[in-house]
Amino acid sequence: MVKVEQDVDYYIRLMQERDIPQVLEIDREAFPTQWPRPSYNSFKQELRNRLARYIVVCRPNALTGFPERESGPSTFWEKLRHPKNMFFSRNSAPPANPPPSREHIIGAAGFWLMVGEVHLTTIAVRESFQQQGIGSLLLIAVIDMAMQMNAHMVTLEVRTSNTNAQSLYSRYGLNQTGVRKRYYSDNGEDAYIMSTDTLSADSFKTYCQEIKQVHEQRWQQLQLVNKIWEDKSE
Question: Which one of 11, 157, 184, 192 is the catalytic residue?
Fold first, then answer.
């Protein structure tokens, strides 16, 4: 038996091999000029890399929904982090030919944990779901994971021309700390290095909690609006 939790539209979980085809679609939409392009095999290798973690934002459907659990999540963020132990679970023996995912994946993010630093390698959202806060949810989840894994910093590279991404990252505590010249192989563009302050600092923990509260309120309001619209359309 499965059920769909009606009070949350999206949930975040660890990426699995069956998700790769949809994640490749999202990557092509988000990074059309990227070269070399990621492939099924490259993502498969990343999922088996002990240093790497990849997460996806999904929308449940009537067929799959959420697996039954003994007790439901108590907060908005626990609902998004479904299943509850998503951060550290690994499939020890994944099927050789996994079936494609029946969930609709709308965003993905990945990072490496190296020497106590979380290095964000990718974050992308389907074009039709952009400007809805999905990228923010992914970034908050990555920061949350980094703190749970006792990392002391989150860092990333971003194109110098990608001012929208820079604005998003700066809102969530990442500041420009350097430049990598000709970092992108497709056009030789420079990259800004953006990093957080020390994650264990009380000031940063307080800031993260405030961010999560703002988004909890935003998503609860969005869910209420969706419910009102559904009621009117019946």
Answer: 157
CB count within 10 Å of CB 92 equals: 5
pLDDT, one tens digit per residue, over 41-96 is: 999 999 999 999 999 998 866 434 444 333 444 454 455 454 343 443 333 334 44
Do the beta carbons of residue 186 and residue 35 sit within 8 Å? yes
Q: Phi/psi of residue 28, each to 5°?
A: -65, -40
CATH number of 2-227: 3.40.630.30
d(CA 77, CA 215): 9
What's the CA angle centered on 186, arms 185 and 192, to 5 degrees?
60
Q: Which helix (H) or strand (E) holds 95?
A: none
Token pair recorded at residue 61? 């459907």
Q: Is 157 a catalytic residue?
A: yes
Q: Which of 169, 172, 184, 192 is catalytic?
A: 169
**135, two tokens:** 């990228």
Which residue shows structure tokens 């990227």?
34
Q: In whole angstroms, give the CA distance from residue 134 to residue 168.
A: 11
Is residue 117 helix, strand or coil?
Answer: strand
29 is catalytic: no
Q: Is the pLDDT of residue 225 over 60?
A: no
Q: What does the pLDDT read at residue 230? A: 47
Note the pTM of the prediction, 2 decimals.
0.75
Element (H, E) at 205: helix 202-233
Domain regions of the chain by residue span = 2-227
Strand partners, 154: 118
